Amino acid sequence: MSIVLRQHIEEIVALTDSEFEYIQSLFTHKKLKKHQYLVQEGSYVTHEYFVLNGLLKASYTNETGKEHIIQFAMENWWVTDYQAYITQRQATLNIDCIEASELLSISFENKKLLCAELHKMEYFFRMKASLGYVAMQQRILSLLNNDARLRYEQLMQQYPTLLQRVPKLLIASYLGVSRETLSRFSAS
Amino acid sequence: MSIVLRQHIEEIVALTDSEFEYIQSLFTHKKLKKHQYLVQEGSYVTHEYFVLNGLLKASYTNETGKEHIIQFAMENWWVTDYQAYITQRQATLNIDCIEASELLSISFENKKLLCAELHKMEYFFRMKASLGYVAMQQRILSLLNNDARLRYEQLMQQYPTLLQRVPKLLIASYLGVSRETLSRFSAS
Question: Signal peptide: which range, if any (chains A, B) (predicted)?
Fold first, then answer.
């Protein structure tokens, strides 16, 4: 199973077998059913997760009960409530499973240890954070530019299988458009 | 001057004098006048910048000529077109000076060298990237939640001096609201 994690890391840094054995020893395997929560608003966020298979969403629910989807996570994605994780505080997001999911989890302490012990893993996680930062910046640009059709097209280009796996209502929530607006794009 | 950079780094990792001397040797000092460009759309982005003093904006201009501000940068901030910098491609953003600015610049190659030579600097930049990612995520949430007044209040809370230093039109562009909407908030 964890060959997937090794391949994922080795897209950025090469690992020896013993390095990967050490890395692997710091992760725990986790299985969740459809609709089950990985992170609940208000709970302490002690772990970060790598998705082996399945599909999750990270979302924020505002005072009026409206849900805004901040991130989908599927195979080879990392997910947690990063603000809570980094600052070791309580979650403001909910993360739950759209499909049954298998994950590898690493605690804040073990990630710190891993990065301190293996410089190349510090580099790996720096690269992942930088790429994540850039992806977020692109999403902000598309939100400011307010072109909902373009946002939809970009999402479909990046993740062509997403529309088959995710209900349209959730795609609309991610894009910040109404379901009616989305139906117009996705039908054309 | 570079005591400012040392203090900034030492908020996250402690440095010896010789380590800081080495770090400093990889940076170049740069002075720009008001309205001058640091990065221009279409140019290759080879450097990242630390702001010693002054104020800049990073923005994207869409097909119709409308400018969307992605970031302000002032004292102790890092700025560049990160997408172009990380992928070593041409800029899609413009970065120009709202005030005359003094910067320290580090090339992509020197940053790579610095992080490889000094593990603690890899850690430092991992932390900065992670905190940047979280800040971007918060901004996406406030854009999706579409509460312009809250966005304005958060910005003023984070950077109370910004409104004095930045024309209202630019604040409006950053927040993704019209100047009229902004005037209503800022007057109240």
Answer: none
Q: B3-36 b/e with 16+ CB inside 10 Å = b? A: ebbeebbeeeeebeeebbeebeebbeeeebeeee
Residue B150: its pLDDT value, please? 82
How many folded domains does chain B comprise?
1
Residue B1 has pLDDT above 70, yes or no: no
pLDDT at B143: 86
How far is the alpha carbon of B170 from chain A, nearest alpha carbon, in Å?
13
What's the pLDDT at A118?
A: 97
Q: What is the CATH number of the domain that holds B32?
A: 2.60.120.10
- Sequence-separated (6 or more) residues with CB below 8 Å from residue B7: none
Q: Is residue B187 part of a domain?
A: no
Whether residue B83 and residue A125 make contact (CB cut-off 8 A), yes or no, is no
Give the model's pLDDT for residue A176.
Answer: 86
Residue-range definition of the domain harbouring residue B90: 3-107+115-182
Contact B60 A129 (CB under 8 A): no
ipTM of the shown complex: 0.92
Which chain B residues are within 8 Å of A129, Cβ to Cβ?
126, 129-130, 132-133
A77/B contact by beta carbon, under 8 A: no
pLDDT, tens only, B70-129: 999 999 999 999 999 999 899 999 999 999 999 999 999 999 999 999 999 999 999 999
Question: Do the beta carbons of residue B155 and residue B175 sit within 8 Å?
Answer: yes
CB contact under 8 A, B136 and A131: no
Distance from B144 to chain A by nearest Cα, in Å? Answer: 6
Instruction: Compute φ and ψ for B137, nearest 5 degrees.
Output: -65, -40
CA distances from A130 to A98, A115, B122 (A): 27, 16, 12
